[in-house]
Amino acid sequence: MILLCYLPASAQEQQQEQERKIVIKQVQINGNQKIGTQTLLSKMRIKEGNIFSQDAIRTEIENLYGLGHFNQIEVFTNPFEGGLSLLFLLHEKPGISHIAFEGNHHLRTETLKEKLSVKNHTLDDAMAVAYDIKTLQALYEKEGFRDVTILPVRNRISDSEIALTFSIKENDPVYVEKIKLNGVLSFPEEKIKKKLATKEYFWLPPWVGESERIASEKLVSDREKIKDFYLNEGYLQVQVSAPEITMNADKESAVITFTISEGDPYKLSTIRIEGNAVVDRDTLTAVIEAREGQPFSKEKVGRDIRKMTDLYGERGYLFANVIPDVSPNAENKTVALTYKVIEGDSYHVRNIHIRGNDKTRDKIIRREIRQNEQEIVNTQLLRRSFQRINNLNFFEDIQLVPQRILPGLIDLNVEVREKSTGTLSLGGGYSSVDNFVGQFEVNQGNLFGRGHLLRAKAEFGGTRSSYSLTFREPYLFDTTYSGQIDLFNNFRTLESYKEKRTGGNLILGKSFGEHLHSSISYTLETLKVFDLNAVAPFAPSLVQAQAALGETLTSALGFSISRDTRDFRFDPKEGTYNAFSLEYAGTFLGGDNAYYKAIVDSSRYFPAWRDHVFSLHGRAGFADGIDDKELPAGERFFVGGINTVRGFKFGKAGPLTSDGLINGGNKELFLNAEYLMPLAKEAGLKWLIFYDIGAAYDDAESIAFSEFREGAGVGIRWISPIGPLRLEWGRNLNPKPGESDREFEFSIGTMF
Questions:
Q1: Among 2.60.40.10, 3.10.20.310, 3.40.250.10, 3.10.620.30, what is the CATH number of 95-169?
Q2: pTM listed for this prediction
Q3: What is the pLDDT of residue 20?
C-alpha cells in the first residue's frame, strides 16, 4: 500500500525536481511464500539504479496486483547509501485447501461443484468466488428456486490456507399458480397448455413438483412451444410475447402470462420440389406428408425434410440438404411451398475407426457395424449399426461421426465411452409373490473385453430359492452362431405342494440377417414334487399323481425362432418382438417325463409424444402329455400375477380346484396393454397405466373368450442397472364371489 499526497502545482514541481535527484539503491520484497523473490524481481520494471518516481511505484503496484496472487501490497521507503531503499511488503492470497457446501437439499453437492471455477488447491480469489455465487444462483433459478441466498464462509486453517464453505439458504421454490394465455381466440387454452413444460401447481401427486416450478429456461422454451403450436396449425404470423412473471403476495407462487397475437391461418396452395436429379420427384413426393389445401404445418415440413434427406443418405449423399422456401400470399391466406434440394456429392467410406474402447476389443464393436469400408455410405445402415452397438449395453455414450477426407470420401469414426459391465451385488427385497427375497449376483457382461457373458446368481426367499450359473458366447468361433450353457437348482413353494428342479441346458443359436434369430436347445433336469402333507387331501389330483412318482428325470429338446426389431431391447420405444418356442420331452431321450409345450409371444411398441410409449404384448401357449404320460404339474400354465394378468394373485386367473387352490392349465392366452410415461427421465424412472385380459384353461376346457379375466391399474417402473424393478396396483374388473377386487404387486430390490 502506498499513500499519495496531492500538492499545489509549484510544490509538485519541486518534488519532481527532487525525485529526479533520488536514486533507488535497493529493492527488497517481503511476505512472498508461494512465488520466489527472484521470479518477482525479474517481472518488476523498477530496478536498482533507477530514479525514484511515484508514478513508477503506482504502475508497479498495479502490475503486481495483476499477477492475481496478492490481496494487499504495501511500499515503504528508507534512506540508503545516498539514495532510497524500496521495500515491497506483499500479502499473499491464501490457498483453498477444501471446498464444502451446506444447506443444499435440492441440488447435490457434486452438481454444484461441477459449476465452480474455484477449485481445491487454488488461490482464494474474491472476484472468482463472487462469479461462482452468481453461477450457482442461476443454476437454482433454472430449477425453480428464485430466492436463493449463497454466502462464502472462509475458515482460516493456517496463515496460508483456508477452507471455503458456500452456505446456501434455498428457501421454498416459487410455484406456478396459474398460466394465462392472453389473446387466444381460435383454440381451447388447455390444448396449448398441454404442450408446455411448465405446469400449473396441483397438490397431487406430491412427486410431480419440478414441472410446476418457475424455471427461466423452461419459460423460454415454452414461448417457442406456443409459437410452434400455432405454426403447426397454419398461423404463420403468430407473435408470442416474453413471459411476464407476477409474484403473489405470499412470495411462494406466481402467475405466468403469455400474450399472443394469432394472426390468420394459411393453407398450402402449391407444393413443389426443385434441384433433385438423383432421386426422382415421384419417390420424394411419396414420403411428403404436407398436402395442398391443408393448413401449413411447420412440424410436417420438418418431417418431410428428414424423410427426403434420409432417401438421399441411403444412396450415399450424406450431406444432402433440403431447404423449404415458404412464400405466403397475404390476400388469399395461402402459402406456396417449395422444397429446394441441394444434393451435393455421394460418399464412400474409406476407413472405419473405433475410439474410446479401452477394454472392449475392436472386433466386438466392429462386428455390429453394418456399414462396410469401401462401400457407398448408407444412413439406414448407420442407424442400424448404432442400435446394435447400443444393444450390447457396454457403453454409456455412442457416436457415429462421418469425417470428410476427400471429395466423395469419408472416414467413419465410431466413438464410444465405456461403462462398467461387471457387477457384484448383494441385495434384498420383498415380493408380493415370494415374500422376502435375498440376492447375490456376480455378473460380467463383457468378460475380458471379448463380449462374453458370465453370470452367477443366487436368490433365496420365503417361497422360492434358485441358484444358477450362465456362460454365453454371442459369436461362437467368430460366426453368426451363439452358444450358451446354463446350470440351475430351483426350489419353489406353491399353494398345495413344493417343487424342486436341478439340471442344466445347452443352447445353440443362429442369426439370419438383421432381425431373425433361432436356436435349438437340450435340457436335462430332475423334477420332484413333494411335501403335500398339510394339504394332500385337497391338492389337485394331478399334483398328487406327480408326487407319487417321486423324483423324475426330464430330457427335452427345444426349438425357438424370433424376430426382433426393437430399437433398444432393454428399454424399447418402438419396434416389434415376435417369438415361437417348442419344447419336446420324451422317454426316447432317456427321461421319465413325456410332454410337449408350445408358446407364441408377440410384442409391439409405439412411440408417442414426449418419450411416452404405448405397448401391446400377447402370449398363447399349449402343452400336453404324450405316450400316455401326464403333463407335469410344474410345466402347466399359471395365469394371474405380475407377469401375466395383473389384479389377480399368482395363478388365480386359471383353473382352480373346488377348494380354490390353483391347478394350472394346459392352455393359456392373455394380452397386456401398457402406456408408459417418464417420471424421472435421467434416473430411468417411469410410471404406467395398464389393462390385462386373459386366462388359463384346464385340459377338458376349450379357450373361451367369455371366460377371460380382466385387470387394470397403474404402476411405477425403474429401469435400474440390474433390470426393471416394478411396483404395480391392479384391479380385478369382474371379481367372482370370494375373490379380492384388487391386488398390490411389487418386486423391489434394495442394495445393502
A1: 3.10.20.310
A2: 0.65
A3: 58
